[in-house]
Amino acid sequence: MIRFNLHCEKEHEFEGWFSSSADYDRQSENGLVECPMCGSHKIGKSLMAPAVAVSREAAASRPLAMDPEKREMMRKLKEMVQAVRANAEDVGERFPEEARKIHHGETEARGIVGKASSEDAKALIDEGIEIAPLPELPEDLS
Fold first, then answer.
1. DSSP letter string, 46-84
2. What is the pLDDT of residues 2-25, one digit of tens each?
3. Model pTM above 0.90
């Protein structure tokens, strides 16, 4: 699959996925590519950088390049996550069990953090137990 950055005659920008460049050309010539915003069939391709696969470790070691507003938002989000973790007990894999005990008054009410599978998290929510995921953020937000 190949992803193209596309634009219409009214300068709406969007992306499209095609099996090849020739597939895009064929669909475009047959009027099958249209702007999702205005319905125009006069579509052009924009230049784009190719996606390069890297390992998760390599991606995690690179700093994030972002504008100052996003950097500030990420800094505040990181502070919030750190504050939650600093004021909660890390119960690890016992999170679903401990959350239920707190909810049912079987143990002291306190802030806890830990790990839960998506199935366990859904079950807790279905039981009326309020939980929220904490994002895992990269260390370097520059």
1. EP-PPP----HHHHHHSPPP--HHHHHHHHHHHHHHHHH
2. 888 899 999 898 888 887 888 888
3. no
